[in-house]
Amino acid sequence: MQMLLSPSPPPAAAHLPAAAPAWTQPLRARRLAGVPQASASAEFPGFVPDGVQMPPGRRRRRSVAGIDQDELLDPEALADPDSSFFEINGVRLHHKVCSHDDEDSSSDQSSDATVSEAGRSGIGLPILLLHGFGASVFSWSRVMRPLARIAAAKVLAFDRPAFGLTSRASWSGDDSKPLNPYSMAFSVMATLAFIDYLGAEKAVLVGHSAGCLVAVDAYFEAPERVAALVLVAPAIFAPRKGVKDSATGEQEAQKQNVPNDENSPPTLFARIWGAFLKLCKHIAGLVSKMMMVIRDVLRSLYVKALVAFLRSSLGAMLVRWVMDKFGILGVRNAWYDPSKVTDHVIQGYTKPLRSRGWETALLEHTISMIIDSASATRVPVSKRLSEISCPVLVVTGDTDRIVPAWNAERVAHAIPGARFEVIKGCGHLPQEERPEEFLSVVERFLRTVFGTPNERVFQAAV
């Protein structure tokens, strides 16, 4: 014991072991230190060069799509100088308004050049812009002021709940609030409220992608408030037209080919066969009803399980992972030429990720969509397109990888009298990627519908 505690002279050089290879020295140093070194650097997040010690208690910072998640702010703290907020049922909706007499056009000089001189007369109707899933007011920034000059009226774009800088309201299925702020019904109510906010009786609704669903639902809720619809890359599934009609025609033909001699008395075999067919039909009806009940029960259980998962901590982790891995990739893929997506565009789409509670709000919006789609009482918009009677323009890019151009064409064919326009060399975001062509198409449509007789003749000739 005394030998272990007392210091001993260093051994002679002749008795020292051979020097360890150079590559093992850092490893031995770490083992002697007993604690692994933390790390962080600009090039490799999580790595710190040897010799640099992290402060005690400091943990690795989280980020989603390059946005630091440890320093989130209230949405209003991220607002721009021209931002405004309008409260509905306790939700503060972020919006921007452009007037036709605005003099500041420094940010829209390239787009304004496409607005014709005749545009100064305008159509005299305000325009409401409804963004798509994952987007915000930013999506309309390049066309808002030019559209205001075309209309000679105000143009308003607002962030729907769960997107942009609109406040993140808390919500659960048993909440006492009058209306789920993340539901389609709330977005429709907000759309109509903004028409009142502009002091107008009617407005032109311009929807993009999932925003087209809001525009169409707002029309069905109050058709007298909607002067026209402009559906840009509409995320509305439109079934092929005429399939059901042709099938019905074949059935009628088959019925006509069945012989039916009313003068011939029914035979015993015919009576037995008829009774057997009725019994089979009755049994089939009972089985069909049982299957529908089982299907509804399974669907209800599935929806409840999915909602419970999305509202758990695992759901929040999942949405953060998806946005981190695919958020920016989705923006680039929405363009015809992803290489032209600038840092300014990326910053515009990722800015809402700096707001506190963004992941919970996005999950609640997703849950609301799932519940709406599973509702047996809700008629799908795709089955009501033929009921639209106001002027409609459908616009799409020829290389839309999110919502194919052929689906947009079907939507146009399903709406009586709808116009259909395709912008060449364009993806899912015509208003951002091809603003000049987009403005030209919209202006031509509005002047054809609402212009003076001379303007209508001119647009028809063009």
From TrEMBL:
Region annotation (Disordered) ranges: 44-67
MF terms (GO), sorted A to Z: hydrolase activity
SUPFAM superfamilies listed in its UniProt record: alpha/beta-Hydrolases
Source taxon at top rank: Eukaryota
Domain AB hydrolase-1: from-to ranges: 126-435
Pfam family of the protein (one): Abhydrolase_1
Protein name, entry field: AB hydrolase-1 domain-containing protein
The species this protein was found in: Setaria italica (Foxtail millet)
Gene: LOC101759028
